[in-house]
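Input/output pair, single chain:
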Amino acid sequence: MSLYQVNKLCYDLKLATNREAYQADPRGYLRRYHLDEDERTALDARDYAWLFDHGVNFLVLSTFATQNGVAALPAMIDVMREQYERMETEG
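Output:
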């Protein structure tokens, strides 16, 4: 896992030009970073629980979540809780 690259991608979304580039072409924006297939899949799926479990910093992850319609930390925590519950039921 290229944890540094995922954290950097999320952190870089603090800049307006990067947010605009991400919104215009999310997959194209991801290609700017050296990510493995699992990371790309998790980022495409907005799987915050997987990303957090694999070491992505919670605060920079919240920046990424904000770009995907999760407007506040409590909302992100709710989404992650649902994802963890789903993972538990799916085994």
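The two ends are 23 Å apart (CA to CA). The helical segments are 3-12, 16-24, 26-30, 37-45, 48-53, 58-66, 73-90.
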